[in-house]
Transmembrane protein 45B
Amino acid sequence: MGARSQEPGVGAGRRSRSRSREREPGRGGPAGARRGAEGRGGARRGGRGGAGGAGRAGRSHLPGRPQQSARGCGRRVAGRRCSRTVMANFKGHALPGSFFLIVGLWWSVKYPLIYFRQKGKSSQLTHYHQRLEIIEAAIRTLFSVVGILAEQFVPDGPHLHLYHENQWVKLMNWQHSTMYLFFAVSGIMDMLTYLITHVPLGLDRLVMAVATFTEGFLFYYHVHNRPPLDQHIHSLLLCAVFGGAFSIFLEVILRDNIVLQLFRTSLVILQGTWFWQIGFVLFPPSGEPEWDQKDDANIMFVTMCFCWHYLAALCIVAISYSLVYCHLTRFKRHGGEIIGIQKLKSDPTYQTSLLGGSDEE
């Protein structure tokens, strides 16, 4: 009787344990199946990166995968991975570097040439110099327009779309376009200064100073959330940019000051060479191994290299100044001899003595 009474209890215990297994997640039953499906779906969503998880606001990213890397986007937008911007490659740094380098080299010849030709004479520009300034301003404006078109209409550019499908479109390209736009305005103002007499004197230098300051302002907020070496090598560029803006602003007051003009020229050359250096450091074009962007030794070397670049820029300005001086001195001496011979031949006493000598013979 006692043995029979225990059998139902044992069976009930087995049945209760089987029910508890059904209630456990992932062990069968409707609830477990639903929880298992949710777990597998969550794993699939997490494995896709930004398509269903990281790309949406308010959801955490997978460990070990940054939200935004130094060279591109670590997320997906509208089902596509963000491509690199124009500036985030070697060519993107070589283009503005070439523009600044060409303008700086031209200024290293132009300003000494104007200074030596006007030395001891009236400070007013001749008609030839005015035409030269207009042509230069037009070329700088053309460079800026080419830069804007390159930033906007490359294959992965924004194509003049700033906001699309509730998202900003290629803001880095828009920042670069804004920089080129201000330099284009500066070139146009330079042309108006020499074409229209009613433009206040010094307004062209003021607009150029504002354009240069805008370049530095944009670059200051351009390198956040990047590796240390990337931030440092771009921050060194700000020294040349803001230094140039301050020098140009002083030219509003001290116009045609050769010292300020040569100082500005050296900083523009420095910007050009340093843009190229940034491209070689961050994006080696020859397939060489990339620099360790977290190594303190690389940061120290880049700082020292920046000083070498500026020393090279100063040497370029000094050599151009010396070559222009030597060329003008030789030309003036040769021209003086020709003018002296012409004056001597036009002198009547010289002609009389020459005729007298021929009669005696």
In short: Residues 296-346 form the longest helix (51 residues). Strands lie at 76-77, 80-81, 163-164, 167-168.
